[in-house]
Amino acid sequence: EADIYQTPRYLVIGTGKKITLECSQTMGHDKMYWYQQDPGMELHLIHYSYGVNSTEKGDLSSESTVSRIRTEHFPLTLESARPSHTSQYLCASTLAQGSDNEQFFGPGTRLTVL
Amino acid sequence: AQSVAQPEDQVNVAEGNPLTVKCTYSVSGNPYLFWYVQYPNRGLQFLLKYITGDNLVKGSYGFEAEFNKSQTSFHLKKPSALVSDSALYFCAVRSYNFNKFYFGSGTKLNVKP
To answer: Looking at residue A95, what is its pLDDT?
Structure first.
């Protein structure tokens, strides 16, 4: 098992609520990523980070925001959740050095917005 | 542009038979290719990767993959499938600047007893 954690694992909330999905890794990885994945479907990159104080938008437009104040922590925030945000959110990380490093994934957060 | 294609949404195989899950790629420069497996309600788990060297790469759980440069393919294989191999499999390529991974659409593998 990789040392990358996501909380909560499951979340059911009402429309309009602000939520933060937590992601932490203890491997000292510089690069971190957030993906959105509908069940059994492909992954869509929504945010990534090269390191502290660095964040970039991914390939899929998302209403979420991220921050990277510490190397090990990469939270994702939805200011006002909507039913269209219902999905699984996967966090991943990898080493910055070298081109041959794979990503390590967290267990995911399954979000349901009512 | 970097991309991968998994042409099969689903692969069905009987337990004990060999399995192949297909992946083709498009990349600028040298390809760095990966296979991941995802079980229900879990994140992705790394299986194997090709960076350079032997075209046949061996990975976890008895899986292997064959890199074919002329066909731009990186098919996942296993000589004898297990029911427990049933899962969703993703092929991925790492971009030339190494910051992004591009994933295929996934292939659901069903291994029947």
So the answer is: 82
